[in-house]
Design brief:
By secondary structure, this protein is α+β, with helices and mostly antiparallel strands. Helices cover about 40% and strands about 20% of the residues. The protein has helices spanning about 1-5, 10-20, 25-30, 40-50, 55-70, 115-120, 200-215, 240-250, 290, 300-305, 315-335, 340-355, 365-375, 375-385, and strands spanning about 105-110, 120-125, 130-135, 140-145, 150-155, 170-180, 185-190, 195, 230, 235, 260-265, 275-285. It comes from Manduca sexta.
Length: about 400
């Protein structure tokens, strides 16, 4: 173990300088020091979870309050582009990021957990854009992992389209968006119909997603009220047989569409927390034998993806973190043009989810717009009355 800690000493120092998503267990990290192994931190976090159920509930309850308190009159907002700097400039107010630091992020898995075969799942992750998907008040909005608004559409999720505007219907999901296939790959669940799910364990959250998404058949196809396909990512138990079988399967997704980015490893008892946690680990496929042991059977198709200059995991992570830190510095100094990006993305997403828009407004779109106006006519009337 001392050899492993020495090997990753520089990696952990480097990762501290570029970590954008602070964990709610940050105080524990400070007390433990930089070089304590992941196994010890996992055990202490699992113990801390038992006494922190209320704080976890408060965290997601705050998100739900943000969902329910969004401006009820946003149907009057235009798509005008606004340029806002990311630093203080007289006359400008920085756009508040309501959903910043909400998603749960993994740590690099640098050692095989002691209970790996009994208490862990592996999840194949597609190459796509990480999204926080919020369905509420008849519309589904998507935000980046940094909390920036990207685009919106209609979905069959609770509260996700104009036919479902009940105040107690909403849904918050953690997803990967694969634009080419117009598909949201569902990774995890934060809330369902104003019921917080973050204090539920991984097993429970996945079971809930399996049962409730299966009940909404419309999520599997494109319709007027569901503009994107939803597909639940599998969680495979890491027992020796099932893990070897999974690692020998290639490609991870049918016809390699989408292509695989890497593997997430979830502890069965992990709660959903904002920021990084050692209860969720990340590995690229070619790293699996190095971390999990050479006895793990793995498809040669994964091993040939190893970079030519790859030497070991520690050096790879150190270089990766250095490049990531440089990228984050550029983002921090850049102008915030999220509204401009929003409109550009709206155009691209609209093309992928509604080919009818290419030729202008169709009769079907006109009917859909009339439907929205009809369902919100009482709200519009009240709003107009308040202005007079």
């Amino acid at each position: 173990m001392d050899e492993v800690l020495k090997k990753f000493g520089n990696v952990m120092v480097a990762s501290e300088t570029c970590d954008e998503s602070k964990s709610i267990f940050e105080d524990l990290y400070k007390n433990w020091g930089k070089f304590r192994n992941q196994e010890e931190r996992r055990k202490q976090i699992l113990e801390k979870q038992k006494s922190d159920r209320n704080s976890n509930y408060d965290n997601i309850r705050g998100i739900l309050e943000s969902v329910n308190s969004e401006d009820a009159n946003n149907i009057f907002k235009t798509n005008k582009i606004h340029y806002r700097p990311n630093i203080f400039v007289a006359g400008f107010h920085k756009i508040p990021l309501t959903y910043k630091n909400v998603l749960m992020f993994s740590e690099w898995m640098i050692e095989k957990p002691e209970d790996f075969n009994d208490n862990w799942y592996v999840v194949p992750c597609p190459k796509g854009v990480r999204m926080l998907v919020v369905a509420s008040k008849g519309l589904t909005k998507c935000y980046t992992k940094y909390g920036q608004y990207r685009f919106e559409f209609r979905t069959a999720l609770p509260g996700g389209n104009p036919r479902d505007t009940r105040c107690n219907h909403c849904c918050v999901l953690d997803c990967f968006y694969y634009e080419k296939g117009n598909t949201m790959f569902v990774l995890d669940l934060l809330a369902w119909n104003i019921q917080p799910m973050c204090d539920g364990e991984t097993d429970f959250r996945h079971f809930w997603l399996q049962t409730h998404l299966a009940e909404i058949d419309e999520l599997k196809r494109i319709t007027k009220t569901n503009n994107v396909i939803f597909s639940l990512l599998p969680k495979i138990p890491c027992t020796p047989d099932s893990f070897n079988e999974f690692m020998m399967k290639y490609p991870a997704f049918p016809n390699n569409n989408p292509s695989l980015d890497g593997f997430l490893f979830y502890h069965k008892r992990a709660h959903y927390v904002s920021g990084e946690t050692p209860l969720v680990g990340w590995l690229f496929p070619f790293m699996v034998p190095e971390v999990m042991g050479e006895d793990v059977k793995i498809s040669q198709a994964y091993l040939i993806q190893k970079p030519i200059d790859y030497t070991n995991q520690a050096e790879f992570i150190q270089n990766f973190n250095r490049k990531h830190a440089k990228k984050q510095r550029k983002i921090g100094c850049a102008m915030d043009t999220s509204e401009m990006v929003k409109n550009e993305n709206d155009d691209s997403v609209d093309q992928s989810i509604s080919s009818n828009k290419k030729g202008g407004k169709t009769e079907e779109n006109s009917k859909m717009e009339a439907e929205v106006i009809d369902e919100h006519k009482d709200q519009i009337a009240c709003s107009l009355q308040s202005y007079t």
